[in-house]
């Protein structure tokens, strides 16, 4: 059991900055099952948003709407002031590793290079600049030595590092991560959030996580999604969120965190 | 055994076997890693509708099958992108309707008795020389397209959503892949027949995937395995006087089970060989 930090890294809120993400009245359903109902969210550039919520509550759907992979039934989505489609080349995405084929015949280096693909260059080989950039990033996440290994021979944490390098290779202004701490060891989890805090100096970070213990140290804002969305600029996890999420705080409870956060909330 | 190559039909069979196996190794690898084996099976069977149409109109059955297969492939591709949840059902329907259409169209063709079996089980020993040129042309086109779009195909096969986000024209490349698959399938029908197409397109890549760590190498190894299976099957069918298409598939099947057994055995000892 690791020790909890005394305060959430609240920091000065970048209230004057332009919006990174703006959702207004977003509705989404799969076939006839509503997944998101009337979701609104305004996130400023430079923010670090943690998205929590129960499984099946719509976290990944929300992320895919922000990425433009899914179209909402109703409502508007603006990413960096543009439509998600127009903003695509300005965002990075780290998907859940469990959604990818582990036995796929591809090396770590080849995966990281995918971040340098763009519409402008179908059919052209990667340039010197692309390769230098990817080398720098693989070194940064500590995967350069293992660059020629097949993805199937890497551990969960190593795969995650490669996917982060791939996302960073796009030079993102916003970085979206879906459960980046799933299937990785505890040690890497700490490294991961340190790396994200570091990246947050330049980019907006949006991370889905089930593990509120680690997230609380890094995030500036928290949103809880369970069909509806509750958003708090400033990182507090409110009693309202926990009541709504109900099923999600398994991890919260396991880490003994709600008490602390709720106390914090009561004080506020 | 070399004297059999003096026979023109045997030479053509060997050349057709090599050309189609190389094509299958490249396209089959993409079919396997993209999990579109079912669509490929659907295209193969629905292509029979094109063969029926060709007989009714009096044009070349290979061209009829090719044109029809490409149309069916595009329809299946669009359906699988639009209605993901029901795609398998719709592909299954097209699979059967295409086949049924072929049977009825051949019934309607006046005074022409078509050898259905040669389309169901292949006729590698009856490949005319001009079809070898079609096969060479297709192989060249497939090779050039895959080399040109290699990194895009790698990206969309490994992680389609990421490929979409970085701006790879995923839909276009996916439909192009299905068109190449359709043409490849029509060539494989020549070799082993439409019922056995899937085995030749999937067994070599399946085995190759386990021993390679890049998609390009997987394609190379799958191509070589395909050539070995096809020529061995052809040779055995000549020696034993058995149906060639079925022998080719049986050879591939034996290799498939041997490889699976090898895995079960190898799993006890650690490590796996990689190219």
Rg measurement of chain B, Å: 19 Å
Radius of gyration of chain A: 18 Å
| Residue windows where pLDDT falls under 50 for at least 5 positions of chain B | none
In which range does the helix fraction of chain A lie?
Answer: 25-40%
Q: Which superfamily, in CATH terms, is the homologous superfamily of chain B?
A: ABC transporter involved in vitamin B12 uptake, BtuC
CATH topological fold name of chain A: Rossmann fold
How helical, in percent, are the residues of chain B? over 70%
Judging from the principal axes of the Cα atoms, what is the shape of chain A? globular
Kindly report the name of the CATH homologous superfamily of chain A: P-loop containing nucleotide triphosphate hydrolases
Strand residues, percent of chain A: 15-25%
- Class by SSE composition of chain B: mainly alpha
CATH architecture of chain A: 3-Layer(aba) Sandwich
| Counted beta strands of chain B | 0
Q: Would you write up a description of this structure?
A:
The complex is a heterodimer of chains A (268) and B (275). Chain A has one domain: 3-Layer(aba) Sandwich (Rossmann fold). Helix content of chain A is 31%, strand content 23%. Chain A contains nine helices and nine strands. In chain A, the strands form two sheets. A six-stranded mixed β-sheet of chain A has the order 5-6-7-3-8-9, sandwiched between helices. In chain A, helix 5 links the parallel strand 6 and strand 7. Chain A is globular and about 45 Å long. With 275 residues, chain B is mainly alpha-helical. Chain B has twelve helices and no strands. Chain B is globular, with a radius of gyration of 19 Å. The two termini of chain B are 32 Å apart. Chains A and B meet through helix 2 of A and helix 7, helix 8 and helix 11 of B.
């Amino acid at each position: 059991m690791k020790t909890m930090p005394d305060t959430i890294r609240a920091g000065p809120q970048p209230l004057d900055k332009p919006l990174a993400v703006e959702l207004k009245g977003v509705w989404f359903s799969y076939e006839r099952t509503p997944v998101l109902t009337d979701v609104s969210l305004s996130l400023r550039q430079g923010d670090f948003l943690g998205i929590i919520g129960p499984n099946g509550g719509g976290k990944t759907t929300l992320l895919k709407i922000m990425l433009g992979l899914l179209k909402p039934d109703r409502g508007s989505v603006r990413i960096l002031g543009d439509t998600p489609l127009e903003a695509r080349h300005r965002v990075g995405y780290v998907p859940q590793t469990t959604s990818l084929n582990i036995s796929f015949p591809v090396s770590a280096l080849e995966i990281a290079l995918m971040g340098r693909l763009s519409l402008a260059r179908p059919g052209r080989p990667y340039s010197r600049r692309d390769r230098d950039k990817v080398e720098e990033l693989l070194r940064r996440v500590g995967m350069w030595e293992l660059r020629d290994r097949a993805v199937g021979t890497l551990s969960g944490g190593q795969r995650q590092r490669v996917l982060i390098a791939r996302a960073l290779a796009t030079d993102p202004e916003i970085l979206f991560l879906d459960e980046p701490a799933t299937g990785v060891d505890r040690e890497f989890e700490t490294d991961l959030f340190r790396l994200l805090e570091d990246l947050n100096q330049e980019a907006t970070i949006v991370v889905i996580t089930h593990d509120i213990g680690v997230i609380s140290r890094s995030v500036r804002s928290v949103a809880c999604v369970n069909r509806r969305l509750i958003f708090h600029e400033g990182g507090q996890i409110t009693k309202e969120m926990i009541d709504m999420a109900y099923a999600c705080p398994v991890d919260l409870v396991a880490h003994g965190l709600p008490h602390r956060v709720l106390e914090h909330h009561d004080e506020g | 055994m070399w004297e059999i190559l003096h026979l023109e039909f045997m030479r053509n069979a060997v050349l057709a076997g090599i050309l189609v196996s190389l094509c299958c190794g490249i396209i089959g690898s993409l079919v396997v890693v993209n999990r579109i084996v079912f669509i490929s099976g659907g295209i193969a069977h629905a292509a029979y509708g094109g063969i029926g149409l060709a007989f009714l109109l009096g044009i070349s059955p290979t061209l009829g099958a090719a044109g029809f297969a490409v149309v069916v492939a595009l329809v299946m591709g669009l359906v699988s992108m639009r209605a993901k949840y029901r795609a398998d059902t719709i592909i299954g329907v097209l699979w059967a309707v295409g086949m049924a259409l072929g049977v009825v169209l051949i019934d309607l063709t006046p005074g022409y008795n078509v050898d259905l079996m040669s389309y169901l089980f292949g006729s590698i020993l009856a490949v005319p020389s001009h079809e070898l040129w079609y096969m060479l042309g297709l192989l060249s086109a497939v090779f050039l397209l895959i080399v040109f779009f290699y990194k895009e195909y790698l990206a969309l096969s490994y992680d389609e959503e990421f490929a979409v986000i970085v701006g790879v024209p995923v839909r276009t490349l996916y439909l192009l892949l299905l068109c190449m698959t359709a043409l490849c399938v029509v060539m494989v029908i020549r070799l082993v027949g439409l019922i056995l197409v899937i085995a030749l397109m999937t067994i070599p890549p399946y085995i190759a995937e386990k021993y390679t760590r890049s998609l390009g190498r997987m394609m190379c190894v799958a191509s070589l395995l395909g050539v070995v299976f096809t020529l061995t099957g052809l040779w055995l069918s000549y020696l034993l006087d058995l149906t060639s298409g079925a022998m080719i598939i049986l050879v591939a099947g034996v290799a498939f089970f041997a490889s699976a057994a090898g895995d079960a055995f190898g799993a006890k000892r650690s490590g796996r060989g990689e190219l």
